[in-house]
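Justification of computing resources. Each target in the renewal requires a structure prediction run like the one illustrated here; the chain below, 400 residues long, is used simply to show the kind of job we budget for.
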Amino acid sequence: MLNGKRILLIISGGIAAYKTLELIRRLGERGVGVRTILTKSGAQFVTPLSVAALSGERAYQDLFSLTDESEMGHIRLSREADLVVVAPATANIMAKAAAGIADDLATTALLATDKPVLMAPAMNLQMWAHEATQRNATRLVDDGVLMVGPEAGDLACGEIGSGRMAEPATILARISELLAPAGTPLAGRRALITSGPTREPIDPVRYISNHSSGKQGHAVAGALAALGAAATLVTGPSAEADPAGVEVVRVETARQMLDACQAALPVDIAVCAAAVADWRIAAPASGKMKKDGAGPPELSFVENPDILATIAGLAEQRPALVVGFAAETENVVENALAKCRRKGCDWLVANDVSSQSGTFGGEHNTVHLIEGDASEAWPKLSKQAVAERLGRRIADHFAG
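Resulting structure tokens:
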């Protein structure tokens, strides 16, 4: 969706600058050409070498470099991009941009560009809340500057509140919204996506769960939303940021997840990417279980509902396309083919989650797409790229 697009990324001086390296990498995976301007303060947090290594182009820094002006002047630099992104956008650069000050390469490029500008504010919560910063932010928005974030949470200064730069995945989703080709092939379609692990209580303190991070399911939800689907994400406990444009329902247990999925019906598309616990404790203790010298307690298990099989087997309100995920540690394709038939889903995305694969909690995935008796091997991709590729296949399916 972004292949061939060009972005000018301005990195200003904040601790969140380190996140821009991840943003550059993710953009590059999608075929986006990234040129960078690194401010003097920004270079205190990330080096020109690291930025250049990831972007594949030198990091521009000096407004008065004669070489730069002859080969790539600040006018061309700002206008040859499809989008200008400022991340992190500190209080300082926001103030200068709001006032029209152009005293370095970054602010000069912002004043000279005729392309959309997206800022990702990042600063201390008191700086963000200050009347001057809010006034500048309002002025920038009035001038047509787009904003993503800031988010609330733990800040580098040790305080908690609003001011943290949006995560790279969130910024990337916003960029995709702005630069994706016109046309939303899944417009008018409703999609249900499950993600993350479930937690099955043993007592009020302990629970049974797994290592799923929710990265893949959240990425699928974001990709389908970017293609125009009205997406509902039912997620177990996950630290992943909410995907842009997605309705998010948070649950803990498998039974809660099934209830939330049934409440979201009817939908056209169901993608069951959650790692749902197969078993739960029959009777969780009402109080914390303590060691009493009599040995470990006897735990009785009962089977959890099978969410994928339940949705795929619906007589009424069955989605037109049901896609499951299979987390396997051995015989990945063989087990996935059998699971696809057993569960009654239309497609199955099988991935290797053995300890050496690094899939659980990692950034990449190597999957096979199962459709009927056919298996299609995909190369190792980032989880975001897997989600976008799956989203395009879903869109092609409905296009007929």
